[in-house]
Each structure stands twice: as structure tokens, then as C-alpha cells.
Design brief:
seven-stranded mixed beta sheet, alpha/beta, Rossmann fold, 33% helix, UDP-N-acetylmuramoyl-L-alanine:D-glutamate ligase, 455 residues, 3 domains
């Protein structure tokens, strides 16, 4: 049974399974702000659960059937198995259950100025930049981000206004639950092909996302797949951005300072709107900033708020985040897990001025590793030294028969280890003062960074 707005209106108490997840936290904030009473459960304690308890949510550690009793509805995250004892009990009692992406879709319909930011790469950063601009503009947005933004103390916030900004993920077509007034397509790359099967299917999904947008589609005019996906689309305002001057928004006179700070002019159809300062490294972040600027202006933010919001943006957790130094070695972490992301991140690292760059990469999912094996082998050697870990299978069974050895065989001089302890010991034994060591991947490879630092 589909969970509807009418069903949501009839709810007073909602129970959330997996409430400690980063994707559930913003939804909890918004539901609380809208007057619902919340309870929740999770297997593991942590900072997010501590914060939720301070907000007044009664959170139980561990799952038990009695947790859902008395609830009017149950929300569960995508990580929760259908055999979960609380889901089973909710179904037995006839309590409506709804997956996180569906409830998020309903919530977006409650906002009249909803900006949804999609794309294979750059969603979290661009959503965070847009949030900073809206905050600077005094627009008091509600925000749902796939990472932690220090300025809002986590992965989301609940505002009082009609403005909302949402990170929109294409996996399993979940972004088609949303109701964007302004949508952004940053890029379309060959990811999640275990679900979409072909690039044509993937492009079609993004086209459908654009179709459900009520007002404006902001898109990367330099990205071929995005342009193909939108070809011939009518009934929407289409606004392009990119490095090329044929786009509606583009940068002029880019100047990099020490590889970490950029200044450039924000241009719109040949006219300079303002000078921008960007305090995060990488050309890909210039594109992200252009997308955030174009989307924010389309949603009603003044140009001066764009300038101030981007100048105050200092990055997102796990996006080229410096963890610390040890023995003269700088240790960082990044969420990059697709070849395109790895290429952008490693090229940025090469421009930071360190003696040599070490890439510690944890492949995530057997399907992605097998399908994109040659691309991973092509981009990882951008680093001077490549250290690999065992594949983190995530939600998959290894029907591909793939191991890290297959990737290591394609990268001369690379090494790989089964355990993080072995990775730590190898890097500490071989990295030199002045080197830059970065852990890469969307799994738990960041633990290697902490271990290298002795944390």
C-alpha cells in the first residue's frame, strides 16, 4: 500500500527504524518541526542519536517488536531488512510502513520552493553550497544532505520557511519520489549499472527526474550525457552552467592560490554578476559552485547571498577532509568511490604542493569494481603510490568472482592488504615527511586514516 499525504496527516506518533542514519536525521528534524511525536531505534549508539535524544526523540538501542506498538506509522531506512523484527510487528499490527525515500518525497510536497540536486558526482557538496547560500540570504531553509555540514551541525536542518534543498539520489530511482520546483543535474556517469543496466536507462531516469520538476531545470551544459538526457525537453525553464561560454552561467578569469583557493567572476549570459571566492580546492568544485549559484538564484536568492555563502563554505565531512599530520605526513580522507570522482580528487591532490601523493583506496561493491575495473586502473595511478584494501561488498553477494587482486594486477607498483592494520603499518613504514596520504572510498576506509594518525 502506498503511503499518502492523507495518511501522514492522520499520524501523531511515528516510529523510525534506523533513526541514527545520516539520511534519517534530517527527516526526523523536519517531522519534529511539523509537530509529530517521534520514537526511534538503532543498533548502534553515536553522536546522531545523542543529538536526537536532546531534540526529544525517545531512541532505543536495539530492535524489538514492542518498539513499534502504539505508533501510527513506521519509517525505515533502506538499510533495514524486510525481516527486521520491528517491521514484521508493524505489518502484523496493521501499522502503515514507509521507506525513507518515500516519506522524503511526501515532505518535499509540503514546500513550495523545493530545490533537488541530483547527479552522479558532487551532490553532497553542491547541496551544502546551496544551503550556505540560502542561510546567507535569510531564507531559513529545510535541508537534507548526504553528508555532514559543520555550519548546520549535521546532515540536515528544519527551517520555518517554504524553501527546502534536498540531495536527490538516483539509485533505484529513489529521486523520482521527490517533487522539485527547481532541479539540478550535475552530471550523468556510468554508476549503479547493476540496477540501471545501460546508460540509456540511466539517462532516461534523469530525464524523468527533469520531467517531474515544476519550474526550472539547472543542468551541466558541458556534460554530454546530461545534454542527451534533456534533449527536446519542453515545458520547463532550462538553465545551463559550465566552463564553456555557451552556457547561461560560466566562470571567467579563474585564479588559483596555492591550489586550495580560487577567485573568479560569475558570468550570466555575457554579463558579470559578481566576483566569487571559493575556499575548497579543485576545478570540479568550481562547477559545483556554478550549479549552486544558478539553482539558488532560480529559487530566489540574491546575488550577494551567493557571493557570501560560497565564500563561507569550507567543505563537507569526508570531502577532501584533512584529518591531521603524523611524522610530517599529512593525512586526509575523501568519499570518492567512482573513477570520475577519484580522478578529480587525485588531480586536486597533485596540485596541493606535497612531495608525493599516496592513495589508499577501498573498492565498494563487487559490481562497480568489476564493471569499472579498467577505469579504476586508469585513474588510481594519478597518485604516486597506490595501496588497496579488500573490496567492501555492501549490499551485494560476489557473483562476479572479483577480488582486489584483479585491480592490483592492472596497477604496476600497487600493493593491497586484507586488513586496515596492514595498510597502516605499510604506509607508516614507507611514507616520507612532506607526503600526502588520502583514504578514498564510500565505505569505512576513513578508519585507516585515523589508524595512521594513531587514533
Amino acid at each position: 500500500m502506498m503511503f499518502t499525504e492523507e495518511m501522514l496527516q492522520q499520524c501523531r506518533r511515528i516510529h523510525m527504524i534506523g533513526v541514527g542514519g545520516s539520511g534519517m536525521f534530517p527527516i526526523a528534524q523536519i517531522l519534529l518541526r511539523q509537530g509529530f511525536t517521534l520514537t526511534g531505534s538503532d543498533n548502534n549508539p553515536g553522536e546522531t542519536i545523542d543529538q536526537e535524544r536532546r531534540m526529544g526523540i525517545a531512541v532505543t538501542i536495539g530492535h524489538a517488536a514492542e518498539n513499534v506498538r502504539g505508533a501510527d506509522a513506521v519509517i525505515y531506512s533502506a538499510a533495514i531488512m524486510q525481516e527486521n523484527v520491528e517491521l514484521v510487528e508493524a505489518r502484523r499490527l496493521g501499522i502503515p510502513t514507509v521507506e525513507r525515500s518515500e516519506i522524503l518525497g511526501l515532505l518535499t510536497r509540503r514546500y513550495g520552493n523545493c530545490v533537488c540536486i541530483s547527479g552522479t558526482h558532487g551532490k553532497t557538496t553542491t547541496t551544502s553550497m546551496t544551503t550556505m547560500i540560502f542561510l546567507e540570504a535569510g531564507m531559513d531553509p529545510s535541508t537534507v544532505i548526504g553528508g555532514k555540514l559543520a555550519a548546520i551541525g549535521g546532515s540536515g536542518r528544519a527551517g520555518e520557511s517554504d524553501t527546502m534543498v534536498v540531495e536527490a539520489c538516483e539509485y533505484s530511482n529513489t529521486f523520482l519520489h521527490l517533487a522539485p520546483d527547481v532541479s539540478v543535474i550535475l552530471n550523468i556517469d556510468d554508476d549503479h549499472l547493476e540496477f540501471f543496466k545501460t546508460m540509456e536507462n540511466l539517462r532516461a531516469s534523469f530525464r524523468n527526474f527533469a520531467k517531474i520538476t515544476s519550474r526550472t531545470v539547472v543542468y551541466n551544459g558541458d556534460d554530454e550525457n546530461t545534454c542527451l538526457a534533456l534533449n527536446g525537453l519542453t515545458g520547463k525553464e532550462l538553465i545551463s552552467y559550465g566552463f564553456g561560454e555557451q552556457n547561461d552561467y560560466y566562470p571567467a578569469d579563474i585564479v588559483w592560490q596555492s591550489g586550495t583557493h580560487a577567485t573568479f567572476d560569475l558570468m550570466r549570459r555575457g554579463k558579470k554578476l559578481t566576483a566569487l571566492e571559493l575556499c575548497v580546492p579543485g576545478e570540479h568544485n568550481v562547477l559545483n559552485a556554478l550549479a549552486a549559484a544558478a539553482a539558488s538564484i532560480a529559487a530566489g536568492a540574491p546575488v550577494e547571498a551567493v557571493r557570501k555563502g560560497l565564500a563561507n563554505f569550507r567543505g563537507v565531512h569526508r570531502r577532501l577532509e584533512i584529518f591531521g599530520t603524523v611524522n610530517g605526513i599529512t593525512v586526509a580522507d575523501d568519499y570518492a568511490h567512482h573513477p570520475t570522482e577519484l580522478e578529480a580528487t587525485l588531480k586536486t591532490c597533485r596540485g596541493l604542493g606535497y612531495k608525493s601523493v599516496w592513495a589508499i583506496f577501498q573498492p565498494f561493491t563487487f559490481s562497480r569494481t568489476a564493471i569499472l575495473l579498467d577505469d579504476f586502473a586508469r585513474v588510481l595511478p594519478i597518485a604516486d603510490h597506490v595501496v588497496l584494501t579488500a573490496i567492501m561488498g555492501g549490499r551485494e553477494v560476489n557473483t562476479y568472482g572479483i577480488t582486489t587482486q584483479a585491480l592490483a594486477d592492472k596497477i604496476p607498483g600497487s600493493v593491497w592488504f586484507e586488513t586496515f592494520e596492514e595498510v597502516r603499518d605499510y604506509v607508516l613504514a614507507h611514507a616520507q615527511p612532506g607526503d600526502f596520504v588520502i583514504t578514498l572510498g564510500c565505505g569505512d576506509c576513513y578508519k585507516c586514516a585515523n589508524m595512521i594518525l594513531g587514533k
